[in-house]
Write a structure and sequence with these properties.
single chain, Nucleotidyltransferase, domain 5, four-stranded mixed beta sheet, 4 helices, 4 strands
Length: 119
């Protein structure tokens, strides 16, 4: 029996998570993509705490922005980087969450880099 899309993504994510670990010096930037929104958070896996989080849902609700999903994803990445700078985080490890590095996932990564995060 063939696995469905979400099961395949979960398997890919498990393989990635076996290799990628967020530490105090380099926390993990984790991405989750739903059909409507994209969520990004910076996590310290040693303590199991989320240090900083951002989503494009905040941008869409708060400002009433009419841009597309790519633009709002990039804005979410920039916003995440701003919050990370306030928390004295400059270096992270990128966890694409089992998604392909294209489209909205790439937009978040580029926005975070523009905001000053190194990975």
């Amino acid at each position: 029996m063939k696995a469905i899309k979400s099961q395949q993504r979960n398997r890919r994510h498990a393989r990635i998570r076996a290799k990628v670990l967020g530490t105090t010096e380099r926390p993990r930037l984790s991405i989750f993509r739903s059909n409507k929104f994209i969520y990004a958070q910076i996590i310290n896996d040693e303590t199991g705490k989320t240090l900083v989080a951002s989503t494009d849902a905040e941008m869409k609700k708060g400002k009433g922005k009419t841009g597309g999903k790519l633009e709002s994803s990039k804005t979410a990445g920039i916003e995440l980087a701003k919050k990370a700078k306030e928390a004295n985080i400059t270096k992270v490890v990128f966890d694409r969450g089992g998604y392909l590095y294209t489209g909205r996932v790439k937009a978040v990564a580029e926005g975070a880099r523009e905001g000053g995060l190194n990975f």
